[in-house]
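Example record

One chain of 671 residues, shown exactly as stored in the release files.
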Amino acid sequence: MFLPLPAVLVALSTLCKHAAGTPAIFPVVFEPPFDAENGKIRNIKVQYTEEISGALTIAFGPCNSTSLENIHYQVGMTYIGNHELAHNNHDYDHNRPTKFVWKVPKDGVDGCLLAFSGSHLVGRSEKFTVTDAPEKRSTGTFVKGTHPMGRWFDSTEYLKQKQPEEVFVARAKTKRFGILGAGISGLFTASSNRLGGRIRTTYLNGSSPDEYQYHELGPMKLPTTHRDDETGETFPIMDHRLISQLVDVLNELNKGDPSLAIEFIPFLQNAANTPVATSRRRPDGTVPGKAEAAANPSLSDAPDFSDPSLAKLALDTLDRINGFDKTRIQAYAKDVFRAHVEAVDDGSFRVSEAHFLRQSGFDLNTADEVASTAQWRPLWAFEKVYSMASEWVTIDKGMNRLPQAFAPLVEGRIKLNTKVHGVKYNKESETLTVKHRPTGGDPKQASDTDEFDYIFNSVPFNLLRFWELPPHSSLMRRAIDRLEYDSAVRVVIQYKERFWEHLDRPIIGGCGAVNIHGIGEICYPSHGINATGPGVLLASYTTWSDARTACAMPEAEHIAYIQRAMVEIHGPIADEMWTGNYERHCWGDDEHHAGSVAAPGVAQQELYMPAYWDTEFNTVYIGEHTGFTNAWIFSALESSVRGSLQMLLDMGLVDEAKEVTRKWMGWWIKL
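Predicted structure tokens for this chain:
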């Protein structure tokens, strides 16, 4: 499980090639290009024409300078060759590094890079043209010391937090990398026997994807577009374009194997006849649909507030601070990172709806009646924007096809059925020992181990709490120990026919909800509309405490409860068409996850996120729990890109980081 750097950045980038060398004049020869931007970072590449040893200093100054006394500033110093302190550069041939990191000052001037061995000039570059960097929208930061929740990424600010000696010499690429976790952000080492983590499609009754007898036990849809109902104007949800870009790359890499092709198809989120949450029923006892309830208010339950006038005032108060008009929806859809900064600045992460109402003077009962979210959930409302999308997509033949497309890329580099239970940092060698055992094996047996120079850890924090870990900082340790996780249960049922599409009021795709407790959301398949033969629907998607209660029920009892609900919703036809085939997945009981998604409580995201962006013990934490928009595939992928860049910068590989940035996040990131 020794992974070269390109394996760590699978599908992210092709590393930059070395530029051609310049003619040798000095023992140290600087390679082009000879341009730089004020306030930015870049790599310096050199070649050696002689075997020199001792203290090597690289400086910037007038091109005619021959001494360290006549320079503008020192870029950095290290020991090379056979010097007794040169062992830190053992990654390079003869302890002579060929790549360095240059943090260009904001007010730089033209000049040359100069190399000194001791006090003797041993290298001079061609003249550098130093220009001002073009203005970018981004003014955010990456780690503590500036804005704690900036617009995703600012590499210059990141490297400013480090001591000069930490980042002057770029690390060699011949390092050993371990990636823990095989969800979509990691996809390399797995405690289970499959790729994809919480992306999980179930194919009922042993069917194949081509038979379309499937539904999703994990993510099932991606919001792509908002439409203004008044003007007809549409605008994209930009962050989810990252997933489309990944799919394009995977399809290109796998173009010789049609079985690995990924194709998006429309996901029908809204349909006229999906059931609604109401206690009212049709004359035949079935549950009314959305269009019926909209046309006939008597089919909907009227709000039942203790004090209707006070409740209206409370709702208006919430709408003023957390409502969405056209402008705000577009802002979130265009740039969720900027929206995140604004949410931090306005205190949205520090209060829940109920807490805000109490602070605004409303009594406990009114605050509890009106609040639509739990007492511990912050006001950060990105999911409202997603839920208001007008167009959605899913992956034809199952979301599973996304992680499966990675299989050829990680073949021979992954250990399935391997459960990690500890990571030890070795101070002297600056390496990490990962301890693991076969999944399902004897927990008392001795651990197997693998050693790495760096690791990416995408395992959910609720599982890490039981691991042996290095002595992380207080903030990182508290994040691991305290970050909240949601629970969920999904139940999919197969019927002999797609009877819901042939009711008096046909249900053609879409998701709905009912007032039958513990059923939650119901979603009808968007694929194969009006196809003959069996069909599969998501009969119940329940979260949080209801999920824990449902999963405590014996499986047969729970399925019987859901099937009775299907009959109440659709009529006796649901019993006639019942095949007895189903699958239930309790994410809270899943030993590889112990929960569905991260659900940061009040203040947790604002407090803990900076810790994820500060590399400790050569470990970078990634995964949806470390991202901005928890619970969505985008968040996992975004964290993977961020983690890769973070590691590249820790190693001083600025050129490679810039290439990844340009390819994957160029419209957001400042580098």
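Notes: The radius of gyration is 28 Å.
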